[in-house]
Amino acid sequence: MIMCRKVGTVKQIFAGEEHAIHPIFRTDIRGFLIEMQLDHPESAKSKTVFLNRKPLFF
Questions:
Q1: Mean pLDDT calculated for residue range 41-50
Q2: How far apart are CA 38 and CA 10, in angstroms?
Q3: Is the pLDDT of residue 12 over 90?
Q4: I need a labelling partner for 34 at 20 to 30 A (CA). Which of 40, 48, 49, 56 fits?
Q5: Are 51 and 7 in contact (CB under 8 A)?
Q6: Which of 49, 39, 19 is nearest to 31 (CA)?
Q7: Which of the two residues, 23 and 57, has the higher pLDDT score?
């Protein structure tokens, strides 16, 4: 989490909340779908993406 960089921008936030069952833990998951324009496409493989601000106090 120390090395952060801007990887793209959010182009669209879709209306309506999505609901699914986590395939491994079998728990409910909820959230909103977004469309992103990535400046660094390899970042799509990252498991962590922060939106609108840097993590913690950075």
A1: 78
A2: 9
A3: yes
A4: 56
A5: no
A6: 19
A7: 23
More confident residue, 3 or 40: 40
> Which token pair is 2?
């120390």
Residue 33, phi then psi, degrees to nearest 5: -90, 145
For residues 7 and 39, what is the distance between their CA atoms, to the nearest angstrom?
5
Do 36 and 51 meet the contact criterion of CB atoms below 8 Å apart?
no
- Give the pair of three-digit tokens for residue 50: 């922060």
Residue type, 46: S
- The owner of tokens 């609901």 is 19
Amino acid making up residue 15: A
CB 42 within 8 A of CB 24: no
